[in-house]
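Bumping with the actual sequence this time:
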Amino acid sequence: MEGLVYLKPNVVIEPLIERWYAWSHLISPGTAAMNVTKRHIEIMNSYLESPVVHDDAVKDPKMLGGPFMDYNGDRSEDVRKLLESTFTNQKELISLSMAIRKLVLMLNKEAKGQSLEGLYKNVPDILKGYVELIYDLNGNPSFRFYEQLLYKSKFYNKNNQSLALWVTNNDSRPFCLSTPRLDEKDVLHLDMPFEHKFIDELSKMKRTPRPYSEIKELLGDLNETESALFESFFTDTPSVPYVRYEGDKIRMRYFGHACILIETKDVSILVDPLISYYGYQSSVEHFSDYELPEKIDYVLITHNHQDHILLETLLPLRHKIKNIIVPRSGGGHLQDPSLKLMFNNIGFDNIIEIEEFATVNFSDCKITGVPFTGEHSDLDIKAKICYHVEIAEFSLLFAADSRILEKKLYEHTQSVIGDVDVIFLGMECDGAPLTWLYGPLVVNELSKEHDQSRRLAGSDFERGMHLVDVFNPLEVYVYAMGQEPWCEFISSIKYTDESNPIIQSNRLIAECSSREIITERLFGEKEILYNKKKTENYSLV
């Protein structure tokens, strides 16, 4: 290949860990260990027991998002090899998972309110020095990790990380949490840690061409078949040029799900990045990474779920991002791993932690953390936060998937931040049960009744209207519904007109409209221009 070339716009740089789709709980060693044993190994064993059951299940819309592998044809031999390599390559995590279970069961049996000092001798050997034994104020025993030490131990193995490079021509993919990526003739697998600078150099080539020989040299040795496949990912067709916003207003662009880009001529803020691809015919009009600025001043992460921290989007954007703001966690509890540590260990060194009502100021902008309640199955999780963004005298509230459990909390919040011009609120109000996402972390038996009652649910009509009543917005947008076709592989959501989240959000839209509040359920793409001053009229596009 001669001359300067670009990376094709629809090349996927898919991060994997032992061939499973990489999300944040597979990076933090504690959660990774539990997911390997209680999700990956169990799904692989189930598939090997009956591939037909899995094949039938993925054809049933009611089973969408279930623990079933989705392949064309029987892949038993490949899955068997993956299972064997898992026991070899992830043996340390498997041992860690077993030790965590033993520790929980030991505390259940031995910790009865007395001093815990005498129980340290009973901590499994491989956990000694990595955990602190604790009670809550009511005498319930637990433990916390020294998570930084876990990342520096044998339990964090970057050799399990890899990339799958392939060209996508549609938005369809198997559900990522239950279907590992096996070998395919059109997929190039590269054993490479996520911190590797090759990812940045390759990603830059979507806009900035360079000689093919240079990027090939950075990659290292490939065999003849791999070289031909890698070369097919490039083109001499120039990329779509980015047009910088130079206006005097605030431009809001909706990219799908919970991804919002806020721009002025001086500042760019990207919330919960999940960016679709360009270069093929999609059933839904959408923005792609070509509509992202050359530099992103701040990325805002609302919470630690796989549809809000998409490493497939974030790793290729790493070279553009100046700062990432994340909710402060890091208490060491298994269910609440530190986002800062997670990002730091995959090559991001620009992480800012924020707590409720803490602020970050820059230019004429102020970002304030706002409480995020609900949607986490009543678990003690602090890695969740909403964002109040002020630009000049204009304000936006990104409420993410919050379920407004106590209106008084937001009345107190309003006394701090004041009224809000625009609210973005997720209304996936049914939600999956606790065990759908957090099940691998649970050791003590949880009844089906309790599991079904503790949902990963956002706001319904009544709870959503609490925010409207408290903050008196001029505009309300329902978002983060996972309806776009490019979100289905990560969210496993497919609604009909009779789905409760659609009914509930329709009610909210109707009520807001009756109050002359501009309102809409966002889908696909949307662009709006706002004047910076509250006293001026808005300009909608």
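The tokens above came from a reply further down the thread. The longest strand covers residues 11-17.
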